[in-house]
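Dear support,

I submitted the protein below through the web form. The confirmation email said the job was done, but the results page showed an empty box. After a refresh the structure appeared. I'm attaching both so you can tell me whether what I see now is the final result or a partial one.
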Amino acid sequence: MAKLLYQGHASLRIETEEGKFIYVDPFAGEGYDKRPDIVLITHEHYDHNAIHLLEMGPRTIVIRAEDALQNGTYFDFSYYGINIQAVPASNANHNVNECVGFIVDVDGKRVYIAGDTSYVPYMEKMADMNIDYALLPIDGVYNMGPEEATHCAEIIKPKHLIPYHSKPGALFDMQQIMKVTYEGAMLVRPGQAIIL
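What the results page shows now:
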């Protein structure tokens, strides 16, 4: 089974059963010691694209928002047996033409990593996608807050919700996390790894 390491803020690393490493929005925390096979960048804000933290290999695949979204079309990717689907992400602070979320299918689990966003109509379609884990931002400053994230989770219906991006400039904000009331919400702290 795959393992997800939450590094803090919006940064995470997924390790597959076969030992492939996927980094999403590298910036915060620890755990950049493994060479990436895939790097996903939801948008180009500095706190989501610190790829200089990673030692790229000759076969490392980097997928940025500009690769995943072109002229309103969202693309799918498949590398190393891992399927990746780009999906809409936006709000008043994040241009819909420059930001994406990702749905990652890995080792039989489907993980939705929202990136920086608030509610978007595409979430209505996700209710039938059998999302196992959804990572939704909850800072309430640059993105939706905990209440809206709870509402979005109720629309998407993931088995588990991992609130993240909980406070600008911080790895983690427990008070903000505890405002999320979705039944399947999980508390995952920076530096903590979970089995997917």
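Response: this is the final, complete result; the empty box was a page-load delay. The longest strand covers residues 82-88.
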